[in-house]
Amino acid sequence: MRHFTIELEELNQKLLQMGGLVEQAIHRSVRALLEQDRDLAEEVIRDEPKINRMEMEIDGLVTRLLALRQPVARDLRLLTAALKINNDLERIGDLANHIAERSLSLMHHPLVKPMTDIPKMASLVQSMLLKCLDAFVNSDADLAHTVLLSDAEVDLLRDGVYSELLEIMQRDPSVLTAAIDLIFVARNLERIGDHATNIAEDVVFLVKGIDVRHHAEQTESA
Amino acid sequence: MRHFTIELEELNQKLLQMGGLVEQAIHRSVRALLEQDRDLAEEVIRDEPKINRMEMEIDGLVTRLLALRQPVARDLRLLTAALKINNDLERIGDLANHIAERSLSLMHHPLVKPMTDIPKMASLVQSMLLKCLDAFVNSDADLAHTVLLSDAEVDLLRDGVYSELLEIMQRDPSVLTAAIDLIFVARNLERIGDHATNIAEDVVFLVKGIDVRHHAEQTESA
């Protein structure tokens, strides 16, 4: 029987691998939107089952480790955190899929606005995702904190996209459906940021034993 | 030391209690929207921390039971399911809170459409929520299956709300922001339905050992 630490390392690797798939899905879905690239959007949609299978595999691995190793204290918290992070990653995959679907519905529509805020939001949430996973595997609470700080910036960018699109719609009702699609894309990116924030909160809890969920504002001003 | 079965019963009770808070939040937020009742919306927002505290309490209870009881097989699956369900309930609470916020922003705006589909969606997702929690505490996979079947109906209602609002916006751009608020309310209700579906899938997995996540369509046609 292998050592528990090796099994935990395997779990970390799988979570990172899943994080990689999910990060790629975000990247591709946003590129599909910006470059009106149908193939890329379809790749994201086609690859979603991979992410879903990976979620079930990781769930199975954690449940097996809980049963076989009967961990306590930190190891137990680590495994329950892994379950949550796995769930957050799968939902991020879902959101990237939604963006890919919106990009398909926008495919034959001229772009309603110059695309600057949406790629900015996308690269911000991608970097949040990479950081929170790094923070998890390296038990780095400071890095996790930086993710918590980015959440407000994502919200600001989303507000900017929203009010700009509203103005465009008011001037030209013919772009309504396309503009609403873009509002949903911004909302999906914001929610990806929320999931990265959830993961970062789990990491802080794991490392410091402080539950920062539901009062992130205190954390941010600390 | 108390028996494990008593502790599991306590966990069930807490999850039901949390489910009750969350169901009340949905009910109130939608009534606040329909009746333009500011007090009710503010109650939902004021009570959200209760739901968040309850989530942390249930997480703590499950982690303690995992550590102290070192459960295996079905008991272990039950506890990991409880963690997920707890998380879904907290997110439903968040979504009810979003609806309450939208209802505040719609407070002084004349209703943009006769409100029939949104209350229909609300009562459907409320009943899905009650059923999936019932199914969980009674290990009733058949009841959980009925929840999976309702998900498509929620999506249909959401599509109806969406296309009706789009028409209204095209006729009268002055209602744009109000109509977009309502599109988001419908989207929030749809997501509440998705979370109830997640819970129902966890119950089927728990009772039958079959993972119906990510291929619910097969389940539905079975």
List the helices and strands and how they pair.
2 copies of one chain form a homodimer.
Chain A: H1 4-35, H2 38-69, H3 73-105, H4 117-137, H5 141-171, H6 176-208, H7 216-221
CATH topology of chain A: Methane Monooxygenase Hydroxylase, Chain G, domain 1
**What fraction strand of chain A?**
under 5%
Q: Gyration radius of chain A, to the nearest Å?
A: 19 Å
**Structural class estimated from helices and strands of chain A:** mainly alpha
CATH class descriptor name of chain A: Mainly Alpha
Q: What sort of overall outline of chain A do the alpha carbons produce when their principal axes are compared?
A: elongated
* Poorly predicted sequence stretches spanning 5 or more consecutive residues of chain A: 216-222
Features:
homodimer; 222 residues; mainly alpha; Methane Monooxygenase Hydroxylase, Chain G, domain 1; 7 helices; 85% helix; elongated; disordered C terminus
Describe the structure.
The structure is a homodimer of 222-residue chains. The first copy, chain A, is mainly alpha-helical and 222 residues long. Chain A has a single domain, classed as Up-down Bundle (Methane Monooxygenase Hydroxylase, Chain G, domain 1), CATH 1.20.58. Helix content of chain A is 85%, strand content 0%. Chain A binds chain B through residues 49, 52-53, 55-56, 59, 62-63, 66-67, 70, 72-73, 76-77, 80, 83-84, 87, 166, 169-170, 173, 176-177, 180, 183-184, 187, 211, 213-214, and chain B through 49, 52-53, 55-56, 59, 62-63, 66-67, 70, 72-73, 76-77, 80, 83-84, 87, 166, 169-170, 173, 176-177, 180, 183-184, 187, 211, 213-214.
